[in-house]
Amino acid sequence: MPNKQYIAGRAFEYQVMATWRSRGYSVIRASGSKGLYDIVAFRPDRKPELIQCKKVSSMATGDRLFSKFTKTIQPSDYYHQVMAIKVKGQEPVISLTI
Fold it and tell me: Which residue, 63, 46, 53, is CA-closest to 31?
C-alpha cells in the first residue's frame, strides 16, 4: 500500500492536471517515471509545458526549490519548464515557468 506522502503527492499532481485541462491543454501524467517532470501539458497553438510538482512543508523549502530550479534548468525554444509548489496548509499553488 502506498504511503501517505505518495498519495498526497499524487493528489497534488491530479490537481495540477485539472488546472491545465481547464486552460484547454491535453495532459499526461508520467506516473512512476522518477524523471524530472511529473506532467506534460500540450495544445496545438502553444509550446508544451513540462511540469514538476512538489508538496512542501514551508515556503522556505519552496523558495529553495525554486532557486535550485532556476539555476539548473536551461530555457528552451521548444518547450516551457514549470515547477508547481503547494505549501502545506495553504490553498494557492505557486508556480514558476522557465
Answer: 53
